[in-house]
Amino acid sequence: MLLESLDLTPEELRRSTGWEIKPEGACKDDRCVPLPGVETRADGTIDVRAFADRMGMPVAGDETHGLWALGPQAGASVLQSAQVSEIVLPDFAGNAFDVASLRGRKVLLLAWASW
């Protein structure tokens, strides 16, 4: 997900990531991860880098343009929690091909645009 700041309120963090900050830690669905060292500051924000570090989420940024990318939780497997939207494309014969049929396999999706 793209962020314009590395200082987010708990609500902004929830909207961006789906992780809700609670007294027991960061919670999403039926999982809660303790967040020692990640606390809400006096101004009500959370340091996204500290959150990402604790959650095993990569952060890449372009400080010149004020834009950062927060990756999905990696855990023991890269992109374990990433989910792609449904993609159905025509194959070479013009038949519909559902990319979900490749679930569980490594897939490289290459896109190109002339602009």
Task: Please characterize this protein's 3D structure.
The chain is built from two helices and ten strands, in the order ββαββββαββββ. It is α+β, with helices and mostly antiparallel strands. The protein has a domain at 2-70. The strands form four sheets. Strands 1-8-7 form a three-stranded antiparallel beta sheet, with no helix packed on it. A three-stranded antiparallel beta sheet has the order 3-4-5. The radius of gyration is 18 Å and the shape is elongated. The model has no long low-confidence stretch (mean pLDDT 84).
**How far is the first residue's CA from the last residue's CA?**
23 Å
Classification by helices and strands? alpha+beta
Strand order in the largest sheet: 1-8-7
Question: Unreliable runs, pLDDT <50, ≥5 residues?
Answer: none
Supply Rg: 18 Å
Helix content: 10-25%
Strand content: 25-35%
The major β-sheet equals:
3 strands, antiparallel
